């Protein structure tokens, strides 16, 4: 039975939002709603316009017989900036200060609405890159990797510091922790990453960059390719940072343990050229 | 400027899908689209009908001045069953078999489309419960907790087996691992769970039930309340399982290490009364 335009628009929107970056043919929608391709095409141009106006993202049209549409989630620069500023405020709350100058983040990284925004912001940075997998290190990076992976619609892989029997054979590397200068070990299940994969590294927090550097070595070990590195927060680091090319959403500038103050500003995300 | 119905429907759908379980007032939509409440009300009844017909979930209407609408994600029984049967097949792949009779799951639990379905299925089970937080144990349970948390729109908390400086003060308990009968320790950041919270436990895999039992003790320690336990997969366990009241989506019945076969069937999810 032919489905009305209003119902098509609702279901189409839902369908596209749940399958970002996936090419959907007009024929698929025409069959799904028992409607003419010309009507579907009109529907899609309304969806496209609305998505654009409301900052939901881009609906790309791929012409030709093998063509269709593809929804690319993209956050507006204004919305991203508002979110990051809001996060600066929340991270600056004095009661987040932990012994050793660490900042408590776990509550924020367990909030679905916050994770959605982080995922969308990081995914927006890599819109035009082809990415096969998002990589992070357990445990705190996982929610961020999952959020980004959901918007890029590619799998994520978890590097671990401890070996688990449930991972099967693993490849392990040693790395130097940037802040403590200790030698540590990290490993990744052998079957979790194909040779030649294009990998995006994400993490919750970067100090010396040692952990990210370890993941870079792992990527080499797997003969895969690094696409980029984005962290939720970086802290100013007195010393040689092991990583130069990275993006941060937030920067913890100053932690004063005596006065119990934390000073947080937007990271270098907004300075990156691609985002303009 | 007044927004057309077609555009309203698209943006409304997106808005509601991104904020499950949240009450949105008609006034909010009326302002957002500069439209009369009566038009918004008509829009919402079209959305409601389409969501229902397409198995997207329920749009609940709350009458009165403080009322509005609330989107409750809910998977259709048929779709849930199809997904679970598909997972049974994938889990039965011989190359998933690991030494010790373990089953490799990490690839599946890193796939955004699979996690979305798992999240929706588990959230559907607890539609009518009031839940304040989803709890899991690091590392492999995290993606499941995050997926469920996103559909229930409540935070998730991660219990850890190792203490990390970035968690602040923690509450720790000892528990007996069900399968190995060793005494282990797990802990949770003190500030991550409020007293009296209603908690849903989820995990990727349950054998003897020791880990889940540990989380139950932690919930008591926090003077919180257990709402339910749902795991992605359980394995048949020769011994006294420490947990009786739980739900599983899948059941690994039989692992034959010599023949390299795994036999997986749907778990007890579909036997639960609430789901009919």
TrEMBL record, chains A, B:
Homodimer. Keywords: DNA-binding, Transcription, Transcription regulation. Gene3D superfamilies: 3.40.50.2020, Winged helix-like DNA-binding domain superfamily/Winged helix DNA-binding domain. Residues 4-73 form the Bacterial purine repressor N-terminal domain. It comes from the Bacteria. Residues 108-245 form the Phosphoribosyltransferase domain. Belongs to the purine/pyrimidine phosphoribosyltransferase family. PurR subfamily. This is Purine operon repressor, PurR. The keyword Cytoplasm does not apply. InterPro entries: PRTase-like, PRTase_dom, Pur/Pyrimidine_PRTase, PuR_N, PurR_Bsub, WH-like_DNA-bd_sf, WH_DNA-bd_sf. Transmembrane segments: none annotated. One of its GO terms (biological process) is negative regulation of DNA-templated transcription. It comes from Carnobacterium iners. One of its GO terms (molecular function) is DNA binding.
